[in-house]
Amino acid sequence: MPHEFDNPRPPAEDGRMEVRVTKLEADVVEIRERLIRIETRLDQTATKEDLERAVATVIKWSIGLMFGFTTMTIIVMTFVLNYAAPPQGRFAKLEAAVAAAPAQPAPIIINIPPGALQWQPAPEGAQPSPRKP
To answer: By three-state DSSP, how is residue 66 classified?
Structure first.
C-alpha cells in the first residue's frame, strides 16, 4: 500500500500543510520541555566515576575500621593478660620469704587404743589425791 510521502510531487496548496506545520511547532515546544526535564534528571544522577569514587571510599573506611578494631582488641587483651591475672614471678620476693621462714615442728599425735579409757573403780584402801585449790 503506497504511503502519502512516497509521492514525489509537491504538496497541494489546500491548507493542510499549514495545519501540519502548526501541529509540529506545538510538538517541538513539548519536546523541548521533556528534554529539559530529562537533562535536569541526568544532572542529578550518579555517573560511573561517582560510583567508583563511592566504592573506593567504602573500601577505605572498611579497611580503616578493621585496622582500628584489631588494634583495640590487641590493646584490651594486653591489658587483661597483664593486670587481670598476675604473671609468674611477680611475687618472687614474698615467695622466697615464706620459703625461708622456719618450719613449724611436726605435731605430736598420741594414739590411744579404744578400750584403754574405760572407768575403773579405785582399789580399796587407796587414798584420793589431794586437790589443789
So the answer is: helix
DSSP H or E segment with residue 48: helix 48-83
Tens digit of pLDDT at every position of the chain (133 positions):
566 666 555 655 666 778 888 888 889 999 999 999 999 888 888 888 999 999 999 999 999 999 999 999 999 998 888 777 665 666 777 777 777 777 778 888 888 887 777 777 777 877 777 776 6
Q: Rounded CA gap, 129 and 124, in Å?
A: 14
Domain boundaries, the chain: 16-45, 47-88
Interatomic CA distance for residues 129 and 38, integer angstroms: 129
pTM: 0.38
CA dist., res. 17 & res. 64, Å (int): 70
Distance from C-alpha of 76 to C-alpha of 82, rounded to nearest angstrom: 10
Question: Angle at the Cα of 55 (from 49 to 59), degrees rounded to 5?
Answer: 145
Query: Do residues 17 and 11 make contact, with C-beta atoms less than 8 angstroms apart?
Result: yes
From CA 59, how far away is CA 27, in angstroms rounded?
49
